[in-house]
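Dear colleagues,

For the upcoming journal club I promised to circulate an example of a predicted protein-ligand complex. I picked one with 3-methyl-2-oxobutanoic acid because it came up in last month's discussion. The inputs are reproduced below in full, followed by the predicted structure.
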Amino acid sequence: MRKTVKDFRNAKGQRLVYLTAYDYPTARLAEAAGVDAILVGDSLGMVVLGYPSTVPVILEEILHHTKAARRGAPNTFLVADLPYLSYATLDRALSSAERLLKEGGADAVKLEGGEEVAEIVAGLTRAGVPVLGHVGLTPQTASQLGGYKLQGKRPEEAERILKGALALEAAGAYGVVLEMVPTALAKEITERLSIHTVGIGAGPHTDAQVLVFHDVVGLYGEFKPRFVKRYLEGGRLIQEALTRYAEEVRQGVFPGEEHSF
Ligand code: KIV
């Protein structure tokens, strides 16, 4: 049964599982694994489309992949990312969210930022759009944060992240992603908020966890951030399979009798 926003609002303290998925087969697998929510993250720009960051991702790309993920996981709560600048004004945010919810079949949208986006979040939630916030390391503006690195080590940074999370809650967000922040800060934010927190690189005390599918199954390069646990060396296994396929074709081993009519 597909969870509802209310289920997530009532799930404070439960250990929920989010996973990214960007296409039909992956979303099917995620649904079969019983995840609580699928995120069509703009990380798809890097892990699927080969961009150097999430900045180039456009709404049409998220929409295209949201539709595919929805077809693969009709019974799973689906969150679609609002790409960079697609929520720069409330009008843009509303029209971007409208497309992801109506055409894409998403249940909610996610956007990055704290106090500076609280007004936009309030406008979206007033209009009835469920919003998941995202503070800490916000990849769309990583350059302004000094790159892809831990956020909230310094007390003033930690204060800004905490205030951002509280502002998102006050604006009506149903949950908040905490990305790459110290465990103690994630714990404090989780305790201070009545909505659920979703951690990635934020330690064990957040209500939920999220990982990028390609990281979990080892499909995205050699680099493995410390917060990722690889449950499969999928890239290596697929590479070996493809090499064997190529060898067997060249050697005349494939197709065999059993594959022929
Ligand atoms: O784009 C994404 O996949 C994300 C998650 C890593 C939280 O924002």
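Two points we might discuss: The pocket of 3-methyl-2-oxobutanoic acid is lined by residues 20, 39, 41-43, 81, 177, 179, 200, 210, 212 (CB under 6 Å). The mean pLDDT is 97.

See you all on Thursday,
B. R.
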